[in-house]
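[Automated response] Your request has been received and processed.

Submitted sequence:
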Amino acid sequence: MTARSRILFICTANAARSQMAEGYLRAKYGDRYEVFSAGFRPAGRVSSRAIDVMREIGIDISGQRPKPLETFAGVPLDLAVTLCDNARAVCPVVPSAKKTIHYSVPDPHLTPGTDAEILDGYRRARDAIRTWIDAHFAHGLPV
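Generated structure:
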């Protein structure tokens, strides 16, 4: 059996976008990828709205926890993916990763409006991440 590629998703707080990406990639392609997520200023918990919208598509991320980026210092990674512009600015290259790429997803936490409108912002982020992962990871590591 071939070793799985190691992927790290990075956002500022590691509370929503990177957690959704970790959960989705693991659920959909976990046989090929070992998946992690981290933040450079991790929140105390995963966003309840992120948990809710992932549950809508049958993926449970309620057991995941925000982790500091330092947790992965020296851990060999095949790919690091920054999902927010702030993370890209802070860590444009992850030293232990063979490659670092960026895919910008708007922060759903900043969605204005009612609770329903904010939840829709989380769904848009989830769907953007899901579409991007399916397009870029289904046939191997993104180039």
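Summary generated for your ticket: Residues 75 and 125 are 28 Å apart (CA to CA). The longest strand covers residues 5-11.
If you did not submit this request, please reply to this message.
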